[in-house]
Amino acid sequence: MEKHLLKDFELDPKNPSVEALQRWRSAVTLVKNRRRRFRMVADLDKRSQAEQIKQGIKEKIRIALYVQKAALQFIDAGNRVEYKPSEEAREAGFGIHPDDIASIVRSHDYKNLNNIGGVEAIARKLTVSVDGGVSEESINRRQQIYGVNRYTEKPSRTFLMFVWDAMQDLTLIILMVCAIVSIGVGIATEGWPKGTYDGVGIILSIFLVVIVTAVSDYKQSLQFRDLDKEKKKIFVQVIRDGKRQKISIYDIVVGDIVHLSTGDQVPADGIYISGYFLLIDESSLSGESEPVNANEEKPFLLSGTKVQDGQGVMLVTAVGMRTEWGKLMETLNEGGDDETPLQVKLNGVATIIGKIGLAFAVLTFLVLTIRFMVEKALNGEFGSWSSKDAMKLLDYFAIAVTIIVVAVPEGLPLAVTLSLAFAMKKLMNDRALVRHLSACETMGSASCICTDKTGTLTTNRMVVNKIWICDKATQMKGNETADELKTKISEGVVSILLQAIFQNTSAEVVKDKDGNNTTLGTPTESALLEFGLLFGADFDAQRRAYKILQVEPFNSVRKKMSVLVGLPDGGVQAFCKGASEIVLKMCDKIIDCNGEVVDLPEDRANNVSDVINGFASEALRTLCLAVKYIDETEGEINIPDSGYTLIAIVGIKDPVRPGVKEAVQTCLAAGITVRMVTGDNIHTAIAIAKECGILTEGGVAIEGPDFRDLSPEQMKDIIPRIQVMARSLPLDKHKLVTNLRNMFGEVVAVTGDGTNDAPALHEADIGLAMGIAGTEVAKEKADVVIMDDNFTTIINVAKWGRAVYINIQKFVQFQLTVNVVALIINFFSACITGSAPLTAVQLLWVNLIMDTLGALALATEPPNDGLLQRPPVGRGTSFITKPMWRNIIGQSIYQLIVLAILNFDGKRLLRISGSDATEVLNTLIFNSFVFCQVMSSNPGNSLFAIMQG
Question: Is pTM, for the whole model, over 0.85?
Answer without folding.
Answer: no
